[in-house]
Amino acid sequence: xxxxxxxxxxxxxxxxxxxxxxxxxxxxxxxxxxxxxxxxxxxxxxxxxxxxxxxxxxxxxxxxxxxxxxxxxxxxxxxxxxxxxxxxxxxxxxxxxxxxxxxxxxxxxxxxxxxxxxxxxxxxxxxxxxxxxxxxxxxxxxxxxxxxxxxxxxxxxxxxxxxxxxxxxxxxxxxxxxxxxxxxxxxxxxxxxxxxxxxxxxxxxxxxxxxxxxxxxxxxxxxxxxxxxxxxxxxxxxxxxxxxxxxxxxxxxxxxxxxxxxxxxxxxxxxxxxxxxxxxxxxxxxxxxxxxxxxxxxxxxxxxxxxxxxxxxxxxxxxxxxxxxxxxxxxxxxxxxxxxxxxxxxxxxxxxxxxxxxxxxxxxxxxxxxxxxxxxxxxxxxxxxxxxxxxxxxxxxxxxxxxxxxxxxxxxxxxxxxxx
Length: 420
Known about the structure:
Layout: E1 2-7, E2 14-19, H1 33-42, H2 48-60, E3 64-67, H3 69-77, E4 98-103, H4 120-125, E5 137-142, E6 145-154, E7 158-162, E8 173-176, E9 180-183, E10 185-190, E11 195-199, E12 220-224, E13 230-241, E14 249-250, E15 253-258, E16 261-267, H5 272-275, E17 283-287, E18 290-291, H6 295-303, E19 310-317, E20 320-327, E21 329-330, H7 336-346, E22 361-364, E23 376-379, E24 384-393, E25 396-401, H8 402-415
Antiparallel strand pairs: 1-2, 2-4, 3-4, 5-6, 5-8, 6-7, 7-11, 8-9, 10-11, 12-13, 12-23, 13-22, 14-21, 15-16, 16-17, 17-18, 17-19, 19-20, 22-25, 23-24, 24-25
């Protein structure tokens, strides 16, 4: 066995590579959230055997993956592979396995230089603009890990936040300022907008003041945190618009209704269906828990999902029941170049797991972290113009405008039976 360490030409990535039979122990590491995000973003594009390896690594929170020489070659040459450093490894003469340990320094802990755009000096100078909004900003935490910011909407302890970031099994805590911590209960969720209404047992809390007028494109926008700091700032990009369907989930089959379910006439090459092993002539009988009576059932079920989600497919092949899993892709991904472009647009950022498909958002370029979503976003005069809802890629973040937030809040109050 031989071993070596290779640094990627991009200085942010380190690959610890062990070649040959794995007879030497490798120090255990836990996968950080940045690497998890990159692994998850690759799943829908990888062939089934490689996808299984990366899925297992995500489940085990282990950034090490063992390849055969053939598997390594196919991953190294795959357009979705973002790790340039492994191009320096040539496995043509290797007989054993290849184990790669992927390490990516945390973007959260990266020191920011004084002359960088997000430098502390300018953020401190902008602090007076967020002095009111920060009072209505809280932080949600579980097991010591920050999950999301929140926006206080009622003095009795009602808070709006990003729903998908606070989905935890353990105790959800709400940090108000630097000192107070409250248990938090989720009262209602709006899935379309990914907003949750949360309750803490507090009184006389400061409440956000909504401002409906949107700034001009190019104007500064600010993201406050819960301790009177400007977490980040950027420029307002586009007026509110829908991004629903911008990257619609896509299975990749030509279906027709039949007596037993939905028969597949064609399977698109490199589609989610193709990678899941479906073939023309297969009859889909069930997607997850939904029975397939006709093509409309299939179309509606897929449209209700987002790219990157996994779906269980029950089908008949030659009359025999079969089961497979598909990772749904998006319609805007067509060919290897598009897949590579989509992956590279994510590097340098940590997109939220739910990063698109919102009914109404405006775009800005604040370099949000996933846990900085759910709180207010202001203009330079301190007016709260919306709630940050997602980091989409390295250059774009989304926020729900105040006018739409108020409508969603009324709906959540009704859902939780809180309106008088």
